[in-house]
Amino acid sequence: MKELALNHLPELTPRTVESLNLLRLRLEQTAPDAKIILLTSTTPQEGKTTLALQFWQLLAGLGQRCLLVDGDLRHSGICRQCGLTGEHKVPGLAHYLSGSVPLEEVLYHTEIRGTCLVPASGTTSRPALLLEHPRFARMVESCAPKFAYLLVDAPALSECSDALSLAKVCDGALLVVQSGGVTHQELRQAAHLLQGCGLPLLGISVITNMAAGITGEAVSGEEVNETGAAVAERFSRYLEKILEEMDV
C-alpha cells in the first residue's frame, strides 16, 4: 500500500477530543454494530469534513484501525484541507470507479498510525453515475473486514443525491449540523431523506464554531462564548426531540 503525506490536518484540541469521544461513546452505545458510517450534512460548509477528519484521527489514536473514504467527487473538502490538490494530486476514488486504476492504487497509508485514506482526487462530469457503480460496493466489501471503522465523507444532502447513493453500502449515518445554520424544516427533511433510503440515523452532531457536540449534549469549545453555548443547547434539545419522534 502506498504512503501519503497529509498537510494541514485539523487540530485535535483537548476539548475537541472530549467532545468527539462523547460522540464515539454515544455511537457505540446506540449502534454497536455500525462500522461503516456515512457523514453528511444538510447544506454545504457546516463542518462535516472537518469533523470526519477529526473523528478519523481520534479513532486511530484509540487503537481503532480506521479508513476514511472521500466520497465527494464534486468539491472534495478532504483534498482541499489535506493539500492534495494541484501538483500534489494523486490517483483517487474517481480513478478507481472509472476503471482507470485498481483499488490498491488509491488506498493509502498516512503518517497517522492506524489510518488509511481513499481521496476523491479530482472532479468528474458524472459523479452520481460513478458512485452508483458496483465498484464502490466492492471496494467497501473488500476493505470493511480490515478496519474497525470505515468513515465515508459524503456531499451535503441539499447539494445532490450523491450521499443517498453512498448510503446504500453504509450501516448508518451521522448528520452534521452547524448550529443556527439550517432551519428546523431543512433538518427534518434531511433526516427523513436518510431514513427514506433505509439508512439508520445514528445521531446528529452539532457544530458550534470549531467545537463538536452530539444531540443531547451542550456544545462547548475554546471559541464558544456563553451566548453561543446557549444557542447550541437549545438547538440540541430540538434535535433530540426530532430523534425521539423518528424512533432513533
Question: Would you mind describing this structure in some detail?
Answer:
This protein is an alpha/beta fold. The chain is 39% helix and 18% strand. The protein contains 9 helices and 9 strands. It has helices at residues 14-30, 48-61, 77-81, 93-97, 127-132, 134-143, 162-167, 184-196, 226-245, and strands at residues 2-4, 36-41, 66-70, 108-110, 115-118, 149-153, 172-178, 201-208, 211-214. The N and C termini lie far apart (38 Å). Residues 210-232 have low confidence and may be disordered.
Keywords:
248 residues; alpha/beta; nine-stranded mixed beta sheet; globular
Itemize the secondary structure elements and their pairings.
Elements: E1 2-4, H1 14-30, E2 36-41, H2 48-61, E3 66-70, H3 77-81, H4 93-97, E4 108-110, E5 115-118, H5 127-132, H6 134-143, E6 149-153, H7 162-167, E7 172-178, H8 184-196, E8 201-208, E9 211-214, H9 226-245
Parallel strand pairs: 1-4, 2-6, 2-7, 3-5, 3-6, 7-8
Antiparallel strand pairs: 4-5, 8-9
Our estimate of the beta-strand percent is 15-25%
Estimated radius of gyration: 17 Å
Distance between the termini: 38 Å
Helix/strand-derived class?
alpha/beta
| Count of separate DSSP helical elements | 9
Sheet bearing the most strands, described?
Answer: 9 strands, mixed
Order of H and E elements: EHEHEHHEEHHEHEHEEH
Total strand segments: 9
Mean pLDDT equals 81
Percentage of residues assigned to helices:
25-40%
Uncertain stretches:
210-232
Looking across the biggest beta sheet, what order are the strands in?
Answer: 1-4-5-3-6-2-7-8-9
Shape: globular
